[in-house]
Design brief:
alpha/beta; 2 domains; 13 helices; 14 strands; elongated
């Protein structure tokens, strides 16, 4: 009997013809997360198994809790002889180390040639536990301990405790998206949720020096580092937006400043996305939260690009977004008091129902194409690596 980590896939098992791609991508993500821990990884279409020296298992579990695509993690024990007698022997050895009054046995038998049914195995193991441990009884509804037994071809597995994984799909299996990453609360949450659906993200951040500070930029880099805990790294595109923003302020009606500014950001994000083989733009817009996020504003702003825009938090309550931000540890970074370019030069009465025709007219007042070309030509690209893993539980 040897200790082993058992990974359950969850949603990945619904992929049928594409399941091999999803599982092999998950294996690559697990391998990346466990780099340096001398872990041995094997897998099939039902489970992934990780073996390592005893000293590494706590670290392995913590790291696996930051890998998307994992439904459940179990620290269990592998038995190479899967006879019922050997299973009973090892179960008795394991339960003797635990203090409990009630229990039940749950058996999963993927090897259908095994001579006993799942129910028969559970009865047999439950019987020997009752015989060998005093003062206990079976409780099928609310037991203190559940003994899980899985019988597979030539091997069996025993485990007790379940640890929830993040679920979703492994990062990258569904392509790449360009995240419009500000220093606020919403966009990091949007990036996290996009990664959970298998999207590898790159970030684009708009700075506006001297109106925005180096501290504001470092804040966004810190947010990117936190998000990189789930993907290993994030490429961050830093775009100097000063000249564009000052030109809009000078040439356009003030109430349309935010709308025109957002249209320029969309155009830039779109072109950077095309250049980096990203198929969608992702942002943290939430319906009705600010003037630029009314449905009419979104329609007017979104119309300047020919690419899908994913808004993972569009229908979330602000308190729900904050709750996720706290769980993924971006909230305390986001609330640091450094202004980004979306919060400077905000007009007193921004238009909440902008007219697309007027937007197009006002944009003829200046040569925005040359300004965009210059901004993209001078972008700074930073590869942000993930931070040291932290204890992490119970996210979504």
């Amino acid at each position: 009997m040897k200790k082993i980590v058992i990974i359950k896939y969850g949603e990945l098992t619904t992929k049928k013809d594409n399941i091999n791609l999803f599982i092999s991508t998950l294996r690559d993500e697990v391998k990346r997360a466990l780099d340096g821990l001398s872990a041995e990884i094997s897998y099939d279409k039902g489970r992934m198994f990780i073996g390592a020296d005893d000293e590494y298992y706590d670290k392995i579990i913590l790291k696996l809790q930051k890998v998307f695509g994992i439904h459940e993690i179990n620290l269990g024990y592998q038995i190479d002889d899967n006879s019922i007698e050997e299973i009973e022997k090892q179960v008795i050895a394991l339960v003797s180390e635990r203090d409990f009054k009630t229990f039940k046995v749950e058996t999963k038998r993927s090897d259908k040639t095994y001579p006993l049914t799942s129910m028969e195995v559970s009865r047999a193991i439950g019987g020997v536990i009752l015989k060998n441990k005093e003062g206990i009884k079976v409780d099928v509804h609310n037991p203190e301990v559940v003994v899980h037994v899985e019988i597979r071809h030539n091997k069996s597995y025993i485990y007790f405790d379940k640890i929830a994984g993040l679920g979703g799909y492994p990062v990258g299996v569904l392509g790449k998206g360009m995240l419009m990453l500000s220093g606020g609360i919403d966009s990091p949450v949007a990036g996290y949720l996009a990664m959970k659906r298998g999207v590898r993200i790159e970030g684009v951040y708009f700075e506006s020096p001297p109106h925005t500070s180096e501290a504001a930029k470092n804040k966004v880099i810190s947010l990117a580092k936190t998000l990189a805990d789930y993907s290993g790294y994030i490429k961050l595109h830093v775009v100097n937006f000063t000249k564009i923003q000052e030109t809009i302020l000078k040439e356009c009606p003030r109430e349309y400043l935010i709308t025109i500014m957002r249209r320029m950001m969309y155009r830039i994000a779109y072109r950077i996305a095309l250049k980096n083989n990203a198929k969608v733009i992702i942002n943290g817009e939430s319906i009705g939260q600010v003037a630029s996020q009314t449905l009419t504003s979104m329609y007017a702003i979104n119309s300047v690009i020919d690419m899908p825009v994913i808004r993972p938090v569009a229908c979330f309550d602000k308190l729900d977004i904050i709750d996720i931000a706290k769980k993924i540890e971006t909230y305390d970074i986001s609330i640091q008091p450094f202004e980004d370019c979306c919060t400077i030069f905000v007009p007193e009465h921004p238009v909440i129902n902008p007219d697309r025709a007027k937007c197009s007219e006002y944009e003829t007042y200046f040569d925005y194409e040359s300004l965009i070309d210059e901004a993209i030509r001078n972008e700074e690209v930073i590869k942000v690596e993930n931070k040291v893993s932290r204890e992490f539980n119970n996210i979504l």
